[in-house]
Design goal:
With 427 residues, the chain is an alpha/beta fold. The chain has two domains: 175 residues, FAD/NAD(P)-binding domain (3-Layer(bba) Sandwich), CATH 3.50.50.60; 185 residues, D-Amino Acid Oxidase, Chain A, domain 2, CATH 3.30.9.10. Helices cover 29% and strands 26% of the residues. It contains eleven helices and 22 strands. α1 runs parallel beside α8 and α1 packs parallel to α11. The radius of gyration is 21 Å and the shape is globular.
């Protein structure tokens, strides 16, 4: 039986392992922590193929320069990280153009075109139980001028079989979501979008994998690869080596560190996101909300609501800045009739970020059996099943029905720094 080693147990790794196992492969997952416990656990859980657009966009340079030193802004860059982050930022700003944005958006929609069908099939499987809601997504704005701009931006989704977003007046928005205040000027409704409670999805996948014979190694770090010619034959963990036929790196924001062990360098950085989950909330929301002027989001779950957002570039760390949690709550309050009260749990997680905002998906060009699927930024949950399906096809058949050219690793400069001979490559 062909054996696949998946390095990284976030939602992308769990979904990839699920589809690989469905194809009859022997699968092992290695995770440095608890699978599903990092960025996959506290995010907003949006399954929104319409929002497959990349983060770099025309006009973002001006906005980011204004925001980046303010701790309560949508984008904060820690001053001390500028020297090490500047090469990545320079590349990122180069992609802040309308042409790059449209190309990236088209690629993201193509990758996501099977998303809703795959979530339906996962739910219909019967052996996985997770919380999913089909309530659409409501953008709301305090400034009415944003509405036409966003409508134009998202009109492309119709080309991929998704319903056109619909403008909503102030009156209609307040009827759809009574929790909103009169300060809201109007909005946009995207009817086909969904959301899941991400913790329930990762748990369901992990439980299914274990019950179907997948070996899940928690708190286990990949320490190096065994390389033979143009192939990887094993990955070192602790005092032993796990051998396999295929190796897939799905380590999210840590993917760059893992791939360095194979002599590869990718421009991956960590974009820290924050959320606060309020149990037994004083306000019940009807559907997820995108507070469009401020880029703060709200997801209602069973017996709780989650407020999330912001992007903090401060290096690879999980230090929680309470000021950013406070900012999320105060920003949300501007849109609501009353503040949300209840038992609060603050969270932060590291989103894997590439300069062009697109994930890296595919085979490593210099190694015949090493694959990568990382860098999904804020779309990890939304793109997880489509990415996992693609990777299972790529590993098992060497090809995919989805055009993966926009996601290839070698669109960035990468360099293999070791000779093709049997050896261990350590970080």
């Amino acid at each position: 039986m062909t054996k696949s080693i998946v390095i990284g147990g976030g939602i992308i790794g769990l979904a990839s392992a699920f589809f690989l196992r469905k194809k009859g492969m022997d699968v092992v997952i290695i995770d440095k922590g608890e699978p599903g416990g990092e960025c996959s656990s506290g995010n907003m859980g949006w399954v929104c193929p319409s929002l497959s657009d990349p983060i770099p966009a025309a006009g973002l340079i001006k906005s980011s320069l204004k925001w980046m030193l303010k701790r309560d802004s949508p984008l904060y860059i820690k001053p001390s990280i500028f020297p090490s982050l500047s090469p990545w930022l320079i590349q990122f700003w180069k992609y802040c153009s309308e042409d790059a944005y449209q190309k990236g958006y088209t690629a993201g929609l193509e990758l996501s075109r099977n998303t809703l069908r795959l979530f339906d099939e996962l739910e219909q499987d019967g052996s996985l139980e997770f919380e999913m809601h089909r309530k659409g997504l409501l953008f709301v704005f305090l400034d009415k001028s944003y509405i036409d701009e966003k409508l134009d931006n998202y009109s492309i989704v119709e080309r991929f079989g998704l319903p056109a977003p619909a403008a909503k007046s102030k009156k209609e928005v307040l009827e759809i979501e009574p929790a909103l205040s009169d300060a809201v000027a109007g909005g946009i409704y995207l009817p086909s979008e969904r959301h899941v409670r991400p913790e329930t999805l990762t748990k369901a996948l992990k439980d299914w994998l274990i019950s179907n014979g997948v070996e899940v190694l928690s708190h286990t770090e990949a320490m190096g690869f065994i390389q033979e010619g143009d192939k990887i034959s094993g990955v070192k963990i602790r005092e032993k080596t796990i051998e396999g036929d295929h190796f897939l790196v799905t380590a999210g924001a840590w993917a760059g560190l893992v791939l360095r062990q194979a002599g590869l360098h990718i421009p991956m950085t960590a974009g820290k996101g924050y959320s606060v989950t309020i149990s037994n909330p004083s306000i019940q929301f009807q559907q997820p909300l995108y507070l469009g002027d401020s880029r703060v989001t709200i997801s209602p779950f069973h017996d709780s609501v989650r407020i999330g957002g912001t992007m903090e570039l401060s290096g690879l760390n999980t230090n929680l800045d309470q000021r950013r949690i406070d900012s999320l709550k105060s920003t949300a309050a501007q849109y609501l009739r009353a503040s949300v009260r209840g038992d609060e749990q603050a969270w932060c997680g590291m989103r894997p970020m590439t300069p062009d905002g697109l994930p890296i998906i595919g085979k490593v060009p210099s190694l015949n059996n090493l694959f990568i699927a990382s860098g999904h930024a804020m779309s990890g949950i939304s793109m997880a099943l489509s990415t996992g399906s693609v990777m299972s096809d790529l590993v098992s058949k060497g090809k995919s029905d989805i055009d993966l050219a926009p996601f290839r690793l070698d669109r960035f400069s990468s360099k293999k720094t070791h000779e093709n001979q049997k050896k261990t490559v350590n970080m």
